[in-house]
Amino acid sequence: MYSQQQYGPPPSFQQPSYGSYPSYYQPPPPPPVPVYQPDPVTFRRDYSNQLAELKVNSRPIIQNLSMIAQEFARFSEIVAQCLESHIRRVPQWMKLPAFYLLDAISKNVYEPYARNFAAFVVPLFLETYSQVDESTRSKMEEMLITWRTGSPAGKELFGVPAQMAIERGVWGDGASSSPANSFYSGSGQITKTQVLTELEFTLNQKERALQGNLYDTTLQTHISVLHQLRKLVEAGVSQEELQQILTQLRSLVRSVASTPTPAPPPPPPVAPSVSWPPPQQSSYPVQQPAFPPAPAPTYPSFPTYDNVKTETPPSVLPSASAAASGSSAAQNSILSLLSTIKKVVGENGTPLGAGASSREDVKLEPPPPDLERESSRSYRDAILMHDVKLSSTDIIRKRPDVVEFLYDRLAAQCKQCGIRFPDTVFGKKRMEDHLDMHFKQNRKANQNIGRGHSRSWFVGVEDWVHDVSVDVKGKGREAGVRPMNAKAAAAAEVAKRDADLRAQYVVVPRGEEANPVACPICKEQFKSEFLDDEEEWVWRNAVLKDERVYHATCHAEAANGLALRLRSELAANLRSHSNTPEAASMGSVVAARAGGVSTPPPSGLKISDTLRSVSLSPSPESKLVGTKRKVDDTDHSVSDEAEGTPRLKKMALTAADSMPQ
Amino acid sequence: MASEGASIESKEWTLDPETEYRFELDPGTSLAVKLIRGHAEVFGAELAANKPYLFGSECKAAIFTWRGCIIEVTGQPSTEYVSEETPMAAYANLHIAFEQMRVRALRNLRGSPVPEYEREKSSDPPRVLVLGPENSGKTTVCKLLINYAVRAGQGWSPLLINTDPAEGGWAAPGALSAAPVHTPLPTCSPGNPLGAAATSAPTALSSNALLPLAYWYGHAESKRNPLLMERIIRNIGENINDKYQVDLQGRTAGLIVDTPSSFASGPGSSDERQRLIKACVDAFKINVILVVGHEKLNVEMQRTYASRLTVVKIPKSGGVVELDHLYRERVHNYQLHTYMYGQIIPPPPGISSASLGGETLSDLVLSPSSTIINFDDLSIFRIGAETMAPSSALPIGAARAVSETQAVPIDPAQPGSGLLNAVLAVLAPPVNTDESERYDEEILDLPISGFIIVTNLDIPHRKMTILAPNQGSVVGRTAVIGSFEWQE
């Protein structure tokens, strides 16, 4: 039912936006960017030494080690050997963090590591699994589930055989009798434990998401439904039902996974960050998922969109409605639970870009005020102790210890760029954020090589004025509550209209459920979902016009300029190659700009269509690198979206062209 | 220390506390500096240890250390030496004084209790105007003070405002601009002395992805059209006020204004200078004026402003280099090249790979876009007449045919339009689309979206080739010409 091409979940670490990049910009494999050139022996020694420090689940260490691995992919075998012998050697309480590192490297760097690790991951995992305690086991199970879809293509991280072998070892041999390729695709034997693990996993995800967003009623419903489901499963259900639950659960998770998360991350919860850094804290504080795409996926606490399962739902799978014909009461209750889940997911599963981001705006809670204030208070006291007058004579005579403020008080330093942070709880948290940012940027940089970058247009006055001093890159400053009420109100208004549009639906014609149908405007396929009230499969955010089905938002956009704004805002949130790196966090700001652009040009200036831009081959004389890119025709206008403000106009034109007027 | 290879010329320098290693580069050469031990900083931006930092495009800079360090230098600078006399202690004092103003402003904003002895202190954040003659290191002082502020660990993001049209800031030369700064501004090339404006590339440092607000003045000298200059300064000031209304906490970090040397001295009439300085003081609500090493100007400023704000004379660094006209021309070229093609510094031999302050080098390379457009696709204007005598030089009673702030349309089809190779500023679309709200001189008050270069004119077919920073269309936009030209 779900169209795999569009909504097949992206590899968990990728931002949803990458997917839509035109294929002719396929980046070549990223070359390693070595900073120093150690020989293999030195490298082995250095890496083992650093690995030895990985005693607890520490994000900086894991990140650092996987960054090194990324940088020195040519030494991947050495890394693999070091890691394997490390895991085998260390005491059992140190094994899990090392597995997290293995997981981080394989997922985030993938090539060639996943290949290297695949050689030993099965015995290593199972051996470790047999040694560790119960809670570590469940963490390993969670990790194992993410491996099913851990590769960049959404496939098994270490290949099907390895995945199967591990799962068989972990969840018993119930599955081993079934055909290999359907091991967990729904037609094999499924044990209760396995279903419970996955249920547990999904529940955990949801509960974490809820922590970040306490008022999300949809999430609350989800969780209560999942709890009920768990009770049912624990009470005991038939094999067939288990199968259905599992399949539904997976597609549920997948549909959640394909839901782009709104740009502004939920604010960090107050409590966990206060207790930082307890070294034995097994799940490190990813409860503040400020950096969704980074290596977080595999650690015990997952951002919501990290999915469990990406297997194509098997064709043999009985559809929910078909299965509902069963008469057993238990089955009915499960199915109704499931359709409740479905319904809830459906509502939530529709990206509410504008709405979501504005909701965040309004609700953004200040960081633990005490910490920040405490830190600035002690700084203030220290700085005011110095007696420096602003006068020509005084500044030459006095010699205050500026080093104290520039170096000593800022003991924690980023090894990448040299930026320092206070050695306080508050400062540590910011350094974590900062390191995450580096990690993310490095990843992106390697993925983007060959794609070609360009200078963005400068921001307009409105954007500039409203781009408040939150450090968008380094998260140097916490995004506190700022007086943006007028804007927030406007954003809420926009969000409401958008939500109204998205609430519209079209019932899928009988027999058409399996056929992919795409919106003529945006060419994206519709996602069908089961609507409980109607007991029908429907396409959400859809309208029927002249016998053709359009996305309601696309249609409205083509019809008037208002929705254009919504969509652009959404686009800004969804597409990572947005014109400025900050675009995502400036969601509503972008909307303001879009408003400016989409309005008709003044009469004094002539507007002509974009078609008149004629192509020109790259001129060969630019010796100093920098390939000039061709501007071809309007077909490329979509790819132009990244380039700056004019894209909106182009989109409008494209949309208008394809309207059947 | 493991050496990188046998034949590579690299040299270790051991710097004593509070000394600096100064170097100057010839055109076409580059230099890599790696911090081996200790702490070091380039104009206030700290170097990370064991990362080669690249410098190029005739960069002249200094690596300073507060407590001593060892650096490894690869490449051949035309001049290199270690100096023990630096004005850094004085600059550090300034930093402390400004930090005091910032923390007081923040305390005031948060309504925290004020101790008795602090009662009479002002709670105004530092809003600093830096004045000085040519080659006095004004921009360096600004950069240093900004870098120290963002390094304080307090989350300050002060505004840096560049009113020197010859400098260009984050835009191209000819623009005046302002941007909030969150992370230290790197120094690597005079092509982007204050960090870089945002690109589509992922950047690790926000100082390589600044969001400036830029206005087009179009000329290198402030005396060319002081009326326009003043208007732009006031426009930037108003937008900053608007920003501060929205961002109360951001306001507490204050702002620093870099100025052209013509504000301090020069052939222009004293009235004009005073007028532009006053425009800055008013527009940015300046409360501290720093005069870099210029006694007479200091006295002049004391006399005029001492009653309402603090005027401080600060020492000038002995490291500043006398720069000639040709050098400044070349720097304009570097800046435009950097705007279009990004920051490209070929590393010196022996350095296989390096970073620019934690940034992947390949991400700093940009690809502009060359497009052919119709003459009618772009409305091009010039502000004022092409050559303009000062008002004072006109015969008494004579009025100008074209006023300084009049937008004159340019027809590309006319020979001698001056468009070929010209740098054009593409203006942002007007915010106000209501016709009744529009006015004649609106074009003067619109900020810049970006710059394009006219690389070819095909008058018979009424087409021109433009080099634009990205693939975004400029059709239907308004562009303004200045007096800058650029050829690759």
From TrEMBL, chain A:
Composition-biased stretches (Low complexity): 14-24
Domain of life (superkingdom): Eukaryota
Upper lineage: Eukaryota, Fungi, Dikarya, Basidiomycota, Agaricomycotina
Entry protein name: CID domain-containing protein
InterPro entries: CID_dom, ENTH_VHS, PCF11-like, Pcf11_C, Pcf11_CID
Region spans: Disordered: 1-30, 257-321, 351-376, 594-661
GO terms (BP aspect): mRNA 3'-end processing; termination of RNA polymerase II transcription
Compositional bias per record (Basic and acidic residues), positions renumbered to this chain: 358-376, 629-639
UniProt cross-references to PANTHER family, sorted A to Z: PRE-MRNA CLEAVAGE COMPLEX 2 PROTEIN PCF11, PRE-MRNA CLEAVAGE COMPLEX II
Bias kind Pro residues: ranges: 261-280, 290-300
Compositionally biased residues, Polar residues: 610-620
GO MF annotation: an example: RNA polymerase II complex binding
Recorded GO CC terms: cytoplasm; mRNA cleavage factor complex
Record Gene3D superfamilies: 1.25.40.90
Record domain CID: where: 39-174
Pfam families the record matches: CID, Pcf11_C
Automatic annotation (TrEMBL), chain B:
Location of this chain's protein in the cell: Nucleus
GO CC, one annotated term: mRNA cleavage factor complex
GO BP annotation list: mRNA 3'-end processing; tRNA splicing, via endonucleolytic cleavage and ligation
InterPro entries in the cross-refs: Clp1 (IPR028606), Clp1/Grc3 (IPR045116), Clp1_C (IPR010655), Clp1_C_sf (IPR038238), Clp1_N (IPR032324), Clp1_N_sf (IPR038239), CLP1_P (IPR032319), P-loop_NTPase (IPR027417)
Ligand binding (ATP): E20, K60, N135, S136, G137, K138, T139, T140
Main localization category: nucleus
GO molecular function: ATP binding; polynucleotide 5'-hydroxyl-kinase activity
The Clp1 C-terminal domain, residue ranges: 366-488
UniProt keyword Acetylation present: no
Key words, A-Z: ATP-binding, mRNA processing, Nucleotide-binding, Nucleus
Pfam families for this protein: Clp1 (PF06807), CLP1_N (PF16573), CLP1_P (PF16575)
Domain Clp1 P-loop: 132-342
Keyword flag Nucleus: yes
Domain Clp1 N-terminal: 14-105
Record text on subunit structure and interactions: Component of a pre-mRNA cleavage factor complex. Interacts directly with PCF11.
Main function: Required for endonucleolytic cleavage during polyadenylation-dependent pre-mRNA 3'-end formation.
Record family assignment: Belongs to the Clp1 family. Clp1 subfamily.
Protein's recorded name: Polynucleotide 5'-hydroxyl-kinase GRC3
Species lineage: Eukaryota, Fungi, Dikarya, Basidiomycota, Agaricomycotina
Gene name linked to the record: CLP1
